[in-house]
Amino acid sequence: MKTRSQTAPKPLKTVRLPPVKPRPKQPPQPQPQPPPSRKKGQPLVDRRRPKKPPTAFFYFMEDFRKTYKEENPSVKSMQEVGKACGEKWNTMTFEERVKYYDIATEKRAEYEKAVAEFDKKKESGELSEESDYD
């Protein structure tokens, strides 16, 4: 018994189509702007809303970078600075970290006040709800 690959294929029937008439050229239509892209399920974000403050670790990193660069001027890699910073943070005692936690707590309180003001203004209608969403 022969398999399909061993038998000759049947010729295809071809159909002749009528010639296509050329269309007159029209000026291109302006494309509508697509809505801003965002992942499915993400809420719209208002760009005027206050940004969240950094954590205590970032305030520590800011100070640590300055001292580390003074002590090690030959190190140019941010990766090395980041690793050294992380190691130092992990070996610090809670008493040493308190300074940075206090700064972060103050900034967080300021942020929460600013967000409360923003929400109040938005609810009262002082802020227009025009295309400031991302």
TrEMBL record:
It comes from the Eukaryota. Pfam families: HMG_box. The keyword Nucleus applies. PANTHER family: HIGH MOBILITY GROUP B PROTEIN 14 (PTHR46261:SF12), HIGH MOBILITY GROUP B PROTEIN 4-RELATED (PTHR46261). One of its GO terms (molecular function) is DNA binding. PROSITE patterns: HMG_BOX_2 (PS50118). It is found in: Nucleus. Residues 1-56 are annotated as: Disordered. InterPro entries: HMG_box_dom (IPR009071), HMG_box_dom_sf (IPR036910), HMGB_plant (IPR031061). SUPFAM superfamilies: HMG-box. This is HMG box domain-containing protein. Residues 50-119 bind DNA. GO terms for cellular component: nucleus. CDD domains: HMG-box_AtHMGB1-like. Residues 19-36 have a biased composition (Pro residues). Keywords: DNA-binding, Nucleus.
